[in-house]
Amino acid sequence: MSEFDVIIIGGGIAGASLGAEIAARWRTLIIEAEEYCGYHSTGRSAAFYLESYGGPEVAKLTLASRDFLSNPRENFSGDGFLRVRGDVHLTRGRLPDIPSSVETRVVERRELEKLVPGIKPEWKRALLEPGCADIDVASLHAAYLRAFRRAGGVVRTGVRLQRATREGGEWTVQLADGSTIRAPLLANAAGAWADGVAAASSVQPLGIAPKRRTMVQLRVGRSGLRDLPLVDDSEGSFYFKGEGDSTIWLSPHDEIPTDPCDAAPEEIDIATAIHRFEQVVDWPIDRVERSWAGLRSFAPDRLPVYGFDTGVPGFFWCAGQGGFGIQTSPAAAKMAAGLLLGEEPDPMVAYIDPDVFSPRRFSK
Ligand SMILES: Cc1cc2nc3c(=O)[nH]c(=O)nc-3n(C[C@H](O)[C@H](O)[C@H](O)COP(=O)(O)OP(=O)(O)OC[C@H]3O[C@@H](n4cnc5c(N)ncnc54)[C@H](O)[C@@H]3O)c2cc1C
Description:
By secondary structure, this protein is of the alpha+beta class. It has seven helices and 21 strands. The strands form four sheets. Strands 5, 6, 7, 14, 15, 16, 17, 18 and 19 form a nine-stranded mixed sheet that branches. It has a six-stranded mixed sheet with strand order 9-2-1-13-21-20, sandwiched between helices. Strands 3-8-4 form a three-stranded antiparallel sheet, covered by helices on one side. A hairpin with a 5-residue loop joins strand 15 and strand 16. Helix 1 crosses helix 7 and helix 2 packs across helix 7.
């Protein structure tokens, strides 16, 4: 008999949250190729919760996650993970289209000057999304891993799936050190490597494409920025938010196709970010304190993929979380766990149609 019922590939937020939802009932192993879980996308996010992001279907997962993120059950975490700051969607022309389920209101120039002091005159109006919040990503990810282990789950780091073969209703996973592990189910939560893990398991890849995004921490000659709203534009060319009293996190909203890798920022993207930032506010720039990049991985229709593969039994997809994998993780993990275990959906996601996220949509 196999030692485990499920092997989850990847210990980022997707693997950790799915694992935490199933470990009490099924013997579950997470394998993570890096020395610690969260090294890739999960540890590099911009850490915000934005209900309007990703379109109406993603918004359902985000909205369903909100209560869990702000008031988690006590045995999961003593503290909530959200800190509300609001988001100002700037525009030079048309206001952005935002799903009607998301609370917003129009802000005219005078109020805009108060919300974003030093804003340049060409920005005349904006849409304010008051519910936007910071997410404490490290604490959320740690809480999921803690819940997973407490429920009996096992995490092995520094362990990479090389190949997986299926025979007699069971997967044999071959690791980089030559050893093997067996389980009837394989869950692919490998982030940017999701298609590679599929191919290594003789499963047809779905076209999950990693795209690099750059983040810059800037020190500027202005103080009182910590509680500044997130500021972005309706054309999707930048965003920034206050980090410390005189520091901000800034992104040029880049989306550079790349192979799965340990992503690093390029000088040109940092320069682009700064140039765009200079078009928004008159704050003098002191210096770049640090910069980093991470991969956001998208399915061809930019919706995440949750469900069993249609061609190969026992292979479960939990991939394509794009730029919303943290904010959707509570609801997505509940939905994915229900699908994996073949159970009724949890009340948190009972009204969300899982077919929208099924890999079946690619075989039609
Ligand atoms: C710059 C940036 C900003 C972002 N901002 C936000 C935000 O504000 N809000 C939000 O909700 N989301 C945001 N995201 C998106 C979010 O970070 C991702 O959607 C999420 O982290 C994806 O989680 P994951 O577990 O799928 O991937 P990862 O965290 O990358 O985890 C996948 C893991 O699988 C492991 N793995 C791969 N192949 C193998 C193998 N063969 N064997 C074993 N292990 C393997 C990898 O080592 C990796 O650790 C942002 C992302 C980036 C890059």
